[in-house]
Amino acid sequence: MSIRAAAPTRREQILSEAARLFAARGFHGVGVDEIGAAVGISGPGLYRHFAGKDAMLAELLVGISERLLTGGRHRVAEAAGDPGRVLSSLIDGHVDFALDDQALITLHDRELDRLREADRKLVRQLQRQYVELWVEVVRELHPEVGEAEVRVAVHAVFGLLNSTPHLAALGREATESLLRRLAHGAFGALSA
Amino acid sequence: MSIRAAAPTRREQILSEAARLFAARGFHGVGVDEIGAAVGISGPGLYRHFAGKDAMLAELLVGISERLLTGGRHRVAEAAGDPGRVLSSLIDGHVDFALDDQALITLHDRELDRLREADRKLVRQLQRQYVELWVEVVRELHPEVGEAEVRVAVHAVFGLLNSTPHLAALGREATESLLRRLAHGAFGALSA
DNA sequence: CAGGGCCGTTAGCGGTCGTTAACCTGAGCT
DNA sequence: AGCTCAGGTTAACGACCGCTAACGGCCCTG
Questions:
Q1: A29 to chain B, minimum CA–CA distance in Å?
Q2: Rounded distance between C-alpha atoms, residue A84 and residue A142, angstroms
Q3: Which residues of A touch B167 (CB under 8 A)?
Q4: What keywords were assigned to this record (chains A, B) (predicted)?
Q5: Greater confidence, A191 or B182?
Q6: Do A129 and A69 touch, CB atoms closer than 8 A?
Q7: CB proximity A10–strand D (7 Å threshold)
């Protein structure tokens, strides 16, 4: 067996290219032929791997939401009992994610409404649980701030961290460090 | 002549409804029939007012960008010489805008690529000038921070302020005040 | 009251898009 | 060697969509 990561399966190739294209031109703006061409097959060939175009988007969005939530839970458990460290870890994780998977971040809040009812509900539920991780730890750090306010602040910081797609070049590490500082600064202003 | 604001023209009605629909379902996801129906006429009737669907989006995006830039310049001139007050004023203005025109804010960074080359260039140029207003004043307040870093921070704070569309209810004034504090907090972390 | 814009209407055209159908091919197993 | 099946191919269908054509009513003006 190889030491290197396994070669991506055809399914994974398709998902990766679809994410890129959806992020660039919007779900409705990309045709199946184009997605097929991006992985070297023709449009209808995709139907050997996915039930339809919708299914690709659904799998992408559910996948992101699950990865975010799982990662978040891991970090919360790891630093449990130290809210400051938990928040830092959540921020670090989200920054990494935003910088590694810009296309997915873009899709995540842009194309949710294109999903079938059932998938949309699932994604929203996962998102809600992820937000809840943040809200809980921020509330521990700022007990005097109301829950609704904290929830808004968390969403706002997501907006800040997810701004990644429109960033000028600055080098990976510098950008990471800057985004972390900005996020901490925003939360710090909660109890000023 | 009436004291009340003039009734919106048909053109303005169309633009307003188109903005709402584009924001909700994406440019490609909305048909002209639907836009027409939203103002009480049928699809092709729109062509008495606009050259095409693209023209509506173009007018919306150029309009937003111009209003942001004009408002920003006004505020810069008004408080010239006091960078702290200028930044606060820019933040206030942007918060008001984001809360008043959520649909436009959404379109502004989501559907830019659907424009014809010429319009897209114009919008980008206006956006760049607006960003520059912010970058200049933030640099005055944090002279030790590099320009690239400041530019990233400004974009990130835009992301924070523009997160408005996914906000839980909290009352207009409370939301305004919170967003302002968060933005100031983020910028404050620039030279920590 | 005649005439001409303004602002609608409906019908329909041309193109695109997601999806299905029918067929093909090469690798692997028996 | 022959069967199976995963994973492609091209052709074509049906729906939809942006837009134009052709037409009509209403209001304002001379």
A1: 6
A2: 11
A3: 152, 155-156
A4: DNA-binding
A5: B182
A6: yes
A7: yes
CB atoms within 10 A of CB B48: 9
Cα–Cα dist A104/B42, whole Å: 37
What residues contact A188, with CB distance under 8 A and at least 6 apart?
A: B185, B188, B189
Model pLDDT for residues B90-121, shown as the tens digit of each residue: 999 999 999 999 999 999 989 999 999 999 99
Q: What amino acid occupies position B43?
A: G
Read off the tokens for B55.
Answer: 């023209």
How close is the nearest chain A Cα to the Cα of B186, in Å? 4
Tokens of B10: 């048909």
Residue type at B26 in one-letter notation: G
Which nucleotides in chain C have some atom under 7 angstroms from a protein Cβ?
Answer: 6-12, 16-22
Return the pLDDT at B41: 96
Q: What is the pLDDT of residues A124-146, one digit of tens each?
A: 999 999 999 999 999 999 999 99
| pTM for this entry | 0.95
- What is d(CA A22, CA A15) in angstroms, rounded to the nearest whole number? 10
Is residue B62 within a helix (H) or strand (E), and if so which, with residue range? Answer: helix B53-78
